[in-house]
């Protein structure tokens, strides 16, 4: 059993803290956001993530998981510290390292005995790990050692707890071999492959992995544009491709494209890193351009189907960047809603969990209304856009929706519905090469 401090209790930090506690460690989560910490102390979770509330509550009750805003309190017994703070994009596309650097400074100032500092936040290679190690070294009390280990995170929102307990691998990059072994030991109960490498390669592996997954999505979206022109069905094509183990069946869903707090920022940061090193990556720019293009293509499809958007009423189902989360960072749904409103359409939107977060960043106005359920959102509309693949959208009473809509267009932006069933009800079913 280890004493562990987790700095930053957002999507990654809270999941990491709760899962480590479930594995039997004693964990204290630290955040500068007093609101988040006081919610957690009352047993409430600041965001929506399946399985996490139960896990946090169980471990909090068992005395293995606590929360504080005070670094010294969390650091009192810690022999390991995970840094899980944000690395959002700066205007130039580079990752903003200021939260990580401040966390490292606070950790070092509060350290009273030797410990291992584990960098879980996604941080760009090219001097950043070295800088964090230097910040630690210059702020630690004399005689105290705190080796840095880079251990990037690969969980997905919406299945964060499952992913943490079933990782495909752990990547551990360190200059200090014994610190790397201690971090590897934390993963032993999870029985996953562990790659021990240097810090820069560990950092780069994270960016390369996200860029590859984003590439798969942009690839299938590019193929869907061509498939549409030649009359091929993209789902059949993706399925046929996916049977080949070298290709793999996952991340071949054509549609609105990727969003979220990571693919957009990490692909952009990787291209910025390349440019900083004198290399323009045409490839990464194509991935980003295709992704942005899917959003305008969605609006263009609705425009064509409705004979213009001005004055038309569009129901948007799904507001977060994917299902099973309330995270609206870089949400394709929200950017399509903005474009629809700009072109004079009225939007009626609904999401099973992301209404409060969406309303915060895009408050309702004359032409944008948030609705308590999918049926109210569809009422009086000319078209429905499925923007995230919530399974419950599939099981809606679509004939009830059909009756309540003056227009009959359904644009399935996530390939969620059965085209034959929807067409049989009298809808005009549109998708991306379907
Ligand atoms: N969200 C995801 O699915 C994944 C995120 N990542 C990476 O993990 C990192 C964290 O991401 P999220 O959890 O999404 O971020 P988040 O924004 O949800 O959480 C970050 C937390 O850190 C806190 N914080 C910031 N500065 C602090 C400081 N100096 N001291 C204490 N707390 C501080 C913030 O108040 C916030 O609660 C990022 O680098 C991200 O790229 C990696 C894999 C998955
Ligand atoms: O670094 C990160 O933050 C994380 O980014 C992604 O996880 P996440 O963004 O939570 O969610 P994904 O399931 O990857 O979906 C990302 C976006 O791609 C879209 N997507 C996904 C798959 C697909 O086939 N098509 C597609 O358009 C989703 O709708 C969503 O908007 C990665 O999958 C994680 O491995 C990684 O740890």
From TrEMBL:
Residues 315-419 form the UDP-glucose/GDP-mannose dehydrogenase C-terminal domain. GO terms for biological process: polysaccharide biosynthetic process; UDP-glucuronate biosynthetic process. This is UDP-glucose 6-dehydrogenase. PROSITE patterns: PROKAR_LIPOPROTEIN. It comes from the Bacteria. It comes from Acidithiobacillus ferrianus. Coiled coil: none annotated. Belongs to the UDP-glucose/GDP-mannose dehydrogenase family. It is an enzyme of class 1 (oxidoreductase). The keyword NAD applies. The active site is at residue 262. InterPro entries: 6-PGluconate_DH-like_C_sf (IPR008927), NAD(P)-bd_dom_sf (IPR036291), UDP-Glc/GDP-Man (IPR017476), UDP-Glc/GDP-Man_DH_C (IPR014027), UDP-Glc/GDP-Man_DH_C_sf (IPR036220), UDP-Glc/GDP-Man_DH_dimer (IPR014026), UDP-Glc/GDP-Man_DH_N (IPR001732), UDPglc_DH_bac (IPR028357). Keywords: NAD, Oxidoreductase. It catalyses: UDP-alpha-D-glucose + 2 NAD(+) + H2O = UDP-alpha-D-glucuronate + 2 NADH + 3 H(+). SUPFAM superfamilies: 6-phosphogluconate dehydrogenase C-terminal domain-like, NAD(P)-binding Rossmann-fold domains, UDP-glucose/GDP-mannose dehydrogenase C-terminal domain. Pathway: Nucleotide-sugar biosynthesis; UDP-alpha-D-glucuronate biosynthesis; UDP-alpha-D-glucuronate from UDP-alpha-D-glucose: step 1/1. The keyword tRNA processing does not apply. PANTHER family: UDP-GLUCOSE 6-DEHYDROGENASE TUAD (PTHR43750:SF3). NAD(+) binds at residues 31, 36, 87, 122, 157, 265, 329. The lineage of its organism: Bacteria, Pseudomonadati, Pseudomonadota, Acidithiobacillia, Acidithiobacillales.
């Amino acid at each position: 059993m280890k004493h562990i401090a987790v700095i930053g209790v957002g999507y990654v930090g809270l999941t990491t803290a709760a899962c480590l506690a479930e594995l039997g460690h004693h964990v204290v989560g630290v955040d500068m956001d007093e609101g988040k910490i006081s919610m957690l102390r009352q047993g409430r979770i600041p965001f929506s993530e399946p399985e996490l509330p139960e896990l946090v509550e169980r471990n909090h009750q068992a005395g293995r998981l606590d929360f504080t805003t005070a670094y010294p309190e969390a650091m009192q017994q810690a022999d390991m510290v995970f840094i899980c703070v944000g690395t959002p994009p700066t205007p130039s596309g580079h990752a903003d390292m200021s939260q990580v650097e401040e966390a490292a400074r606070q950790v070092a100032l509060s350290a009273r005995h030797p410990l291992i500092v584990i960098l879980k936040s996604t941080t760009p290679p090219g001097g950043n790990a070295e800088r964090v190690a230097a910040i630690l070294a210059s702020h630690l009390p004399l005689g105290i050692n705190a080796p840095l280990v880079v251990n990037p995170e690969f969980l997905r929102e919406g299945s964060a707890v499952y992913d943490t307990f079933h990782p495909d691998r752990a990547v551990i990059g360190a200059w200090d071999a014994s610190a790397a072994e201690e971090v590897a030991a934390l993963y032993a109960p999870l029985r996953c492959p562990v790659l021990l490498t240097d810090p820069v390669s560990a950092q780069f592996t994270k960016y390369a992995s996200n860029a590859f997954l984003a590439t798969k999505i942009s690839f299938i979206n590019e193929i869907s544009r061509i498939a549409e022109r030649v009359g091929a069905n993209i789902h059949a094509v993706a399925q046929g491709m996916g049977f080949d183990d070298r290709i793999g069946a996952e991340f071949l869903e054509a549609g609105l494209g990727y969003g979220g707090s990571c693919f957009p920022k990490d692909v952009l940061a990787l291209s910025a890193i390349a440019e900083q090193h004198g290399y323009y990556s045409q490839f990464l720019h194509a991935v980003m351009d295709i992704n942005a293009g899917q959003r305008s293509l969605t609006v263009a499809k609705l425009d064509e189907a409705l004979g213009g958007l001005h004055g038309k009423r569009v129901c948007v189902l799904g507001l977060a960047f994917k299902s099973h989360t309330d995270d609206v960072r870089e949400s394709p749904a929200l950017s399509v809603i903005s474009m629809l409103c700009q072109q004079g359409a009225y939007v009626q939107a609904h999401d099973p969990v992301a209404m409060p977060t969406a309303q915060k960043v895009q408050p309702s106005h004359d032409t944008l209304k948030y609705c308590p359920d999918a049926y109210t959102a569809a009422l009086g509309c000319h078209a429905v856009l499925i923007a995230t693949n919530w399974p419950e959208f599939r099981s809606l009473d679509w004939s009830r929706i059909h009756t309540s809509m003056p227009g009959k267009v359904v644009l399935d932006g996530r390939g969620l519905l059965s085209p034959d069933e929807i067409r049989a009800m009298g809808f005009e079913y549109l998708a991306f090469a379907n």
